[in-house]
Amino acid sequence: MTLGFFTVFRKDPIHYVSAERMLASAKDAMPGLECVQFTDAKSPLVYGADRLVRRPHGKILERRLEHYADCAGEWLLVDTDVVIQRDVRHVFDDDWDVALTDRQWRHLKQPADFMRDMPFNTGVCFSRSPEFWRAVLMTWRSFPFEQQSDWLSEQRAVADVVRKDVFTVKVLPGMIYNYPPTTEDDAGLKDAAIVHLKGGRKSMRVAS
């Protein structure tokens, strides 16, 4: 398994700081893991990444999906703001094209349309099918400009492709593989293999 993540250097370095923490946690939990940074033509290597794969500067969501669409083999694709607490390579023991994490977070209230239109959170994805991501990319490109500008449009495109039932999709519990804590001593942290410090959680300190 290879870990892949997308980030580009911006004026606010928070994504690089988060990525360094993510990489340190991943290598601690899974010694020997290769970690690949997907980025633009100029952004520097994040400390802890093993190599860079570059594409020209462009729309962030589109470029990220283009990178994912080139990922042949077994990949763990994550956002920079996750912390990996346990070895998750066993997920690849089963036969599937992609394994996605659900939004069934018992401790969080979510809008009904989120659960209906975006049942998966793409901050953590396991993949062995670049074809799946090519289909997601084509779907995303079919969206009108206003929808593409919505940061959540990627997750809507993923859900649209899953509903077509062309690919074998394993659904993983978000409580375990993509857990968003509410506090630094959140009780759910002890059971989570992957913690997602999304949104305002990025500055949280959690043990990895």
Distinctive features:
208 residues, two-stranded antiparallel sheet, Spore Coat Polysaccharide Biosynthesis Protein SpsA, Chain A, 7-stranded mixed beta sheet
Can you give a write-up of this model?
This protein is of the alpha/beta class and 208 residues long. The chain has a single domain, classed as Alpha-Beta Complex (Spore Coat Polysaccharide Biosynthesis Protein SpsA, Chain A), CATH 3.90.550.10. Helix content is 30%, strand content 20%. The protein contains 7 helices and 9 strands. The strands form 2 sheets. Strands 3-2-1-4-7-6-8 form a 7-stranded mixed beta sheet, with helices on both faces. Strand 1, helix 1 and strand 2 form a beta-alpha-beta unit. Helix 2 packs antiparallel against helix 4. The protein is globular, with a radius of gyration of 16 Å. The two termini are 20 Å apart. 36% of the residues are buried. The model has no long low-confidence stretch (mean pLDDT 94).
E-strand count: 9
How many domains in all? 1
Distance between the termini: 20 Å
Strands of the widest sheet, in order across it, are: 3-2-1-4-7-6-8
Q: What order do the helices and strands follow?
A: EHEEHEEEHEHHHEHE
The Rg value, from CA coordinates, equals 16 Å
Under CATH, the homologous superfamily reads Spore Coat Polysaccharide Biosynthesis Protein SpsA, Chain A
List unreliable stretches of 5+ residues.
none
Sheet having the most strands: 7 strands, mixed
| Overall residue-averaged pLDDT value | 94
Query: Do you know the CATH topology?
Result: Spore Coat Polysaccharide Biosynthesis Protein SpsA, Chain A
Q: Tell me the number of helical segments per DSSP (H or I, 4 or more residues long).
A: 7
CATH architectural name: Alpha-Beta Complex
Structural class: alpha/beta
At the first level of CATH, the class is Alpha Beta
Q: How much strand content do the residues show?
A: 15-25%
Q: Please state the overall shape, judged from the principal axes of the Cα atoms.
A: globular
